[in-house]
Amino acid sequence: MSTEPEAYLSYKPFVPASAKVKELTFLPVFMGVILGIIFGASSLYLALKVGITVSASIPVAVLSITLFRAFSKVFKLPGATILQNNIVQTTGSAGESIAFGVAVTMPALLILGYNMEIGRTMLVAILGGLLGVLMMIPLRWALIVKGHGELTYPEGTACAEVLIVGEKGGTSARTVFTGFGVGLLYKFLNVGMKLWNDVPEKILSWYKGGHFSTEVSPELLGVGYIIGTRVSMIMAGGGVLSALVLTPAIVLFGSGLKEPLFPATKLISEMSIHEIWSSYVLYIGAGAVAAGGIISLFQSLPTIIRSITAGLKGMEGTSASARKVVKVPRTEKDIPMSIVIGGVALLILAIWAAPVLKMNLLGAVLIVVFGFLFVLVASRITGEIGSSSSPISGMTVATLLLTCLIFVMIGWVGIDYRVTALSIAAIVCIAASNGGTTSQDLKTGFLVGATPKSQQIALLIGVLTSAIVIGYTLLLLNDASTIYAKRSFPNVTFDTTNLAKEKVGGPEGSRDPAEYSVLQLTQPQNGISVGKYLVDGSGHISYLVDPGINGVLKTRDNGVKVQKYDAPKARLMSLIIDGILTQKLPWGLVLLGVFIAIVLEMSGIAALPFAVGVYLPLSASTPIMFGGLVRFLVEKTSKKKKTVEEAESAPGVLLSSGLIAGGSIAGIGIAILSIKEDWGAALDFSKSFPLAAADWFSYVPFTLMMIFVFLVGREFLLKR
Q1: CA–CA separation, 484 vs 486, rounded Å?
Q2: DSSP alpha helix (H) spans, 137-228
Q3: What mean pLDDT do residues 70-74 have?
Q4: Rounded (to 5) percent helix, strand, coil in the chain
Q5: pTM of the predicted model as reported, rounded to 2 decimal places
């Protein structure tokens, strides 16, 4: 492509500006909403497990093309235009970006000892999502139109290619549907019916502290295939450092200690591998992730400065009058600037006024400043390297660090300001994530000849619908895996006068119908850890409410294993807030992680994916590595080298997108079923299947799935 700044003047979109083509109609918006909810829910599930998501635009576009063709044949309806299919993918893409922002921030409330209320979660998702769309609108001319020829927007360009090929008669969604079906069935047989162990693990008796484990899941295999061989291997390298270097080193040097080593409260010699990981390695990983995110942000500093300069200059030419255009063509019509400014002002007032956010005027001002800055940066970086590689986490960490430091300078320290700081970071994170996705969608629309105003309206609808469903999905996943564990502290009593009432939930609730007072400990008291507790009428603690997200318990009192969600990025946010505002962070461990990240960058290796591998359990990194290895074999044995656009919509990538969606949706469905104890027990066939308990057998179906992905990737199966 030409890099001349006037490249946009000679570009001709696929659909001319003068053409009158159906675009923003009910059915495409409705289909986009449904697909956005599905892919948003699956992205949320994925982000809670491993802290990353993948772009949903291309699979949504492929599904839209095929579904509309099916409708036209079955119901004798006119086929969809390319612009209607573009509206579907535009509306549907909002769910994935909001899901990421919600998953990496809001679960931190649970870790800090607060309730994760539906009102707060939905409000943050809606406010951040709407801000991301509105703040991107005045930047469209500078980044998308004038930046054409300079900013490639690789995923947005690939999505435009898919839509154009679909308009000409190509592109089948059979591959995505097949992946969805395989992922759904595999996950149901594995986690639902428990026909094989979902996380086989081997403790190395000859190497104290060393262990190897793999979560044999379709969604993580799909993630590894999509992010590629190099990134997946770097991430697995971090997992190897955590499981086979750091944990054994802690055991080796700490097993002879006669007193607990801070921050743990037990002797290292008495701790399990998981306890060592959560007490020590987790903080090392947090330091590495924070450093990796900040380093990636600094590496993008030239781009950030160019983005701010170009964006502010470009805004001068945003209006039609400034461009000396007498009649604005359809392809240049945006939502009016008066509505954008008024909408942002109303959102800021809502942020300030909402009691649930515990926001003040300074917080609202910081959201405006950081929000616009990082929407601009995310949009620009998405144009250069794509949305999947955009360092949104680093921007969120930077926002949180700067916010907390500002709070410290003006004396706002202590637990009372933690929710305010987290709310600022959450809204900015969601705005930046959605701003990058919005710019990518608008680039696709620019290439195919869409009306920007129609896309912007579709995005606003997608934000509102996805935010509502994602909020409920987040709470559902947490509640379904929450364990009510019996606890007794006979020498400690609490005043229950002003406490809310609640009954025991989950399967435990069927055995205890009594009502208890809810105690939220946001700081340790009398040797009792931070968390949620149920207190009886005499003021004594009866239950620990161990959350499904970041909970420490893995098994219910009746011996049933429960799937927990690590939410790694949310844990990082909680550590930063707690460490700065309450000065409780074990800085020695954190700094170990910081210098690990620095050493990697000095060696020419991207620190952030490696740090994520250190931060996650090894079981999460290994299936991603296997997915990357399958991608390597596909590309190594393929005779034809694909372009970037072809690689983004290749059969293996589409199948992997289906595996992610199918496996994640099955995981959500199984979580719903597990709320009722008898439903989960009825599905459990592990006792009827002798090989279910054998760890080696878990690798048999997982290997078969890898072979299937390879065959589809090489187009030996499901040929186009």
Answers
A1: 7
A2: 140, 154-167, 174-187, 218-227
A3: 81
A4: 65, 5, 30
A5: 0.80
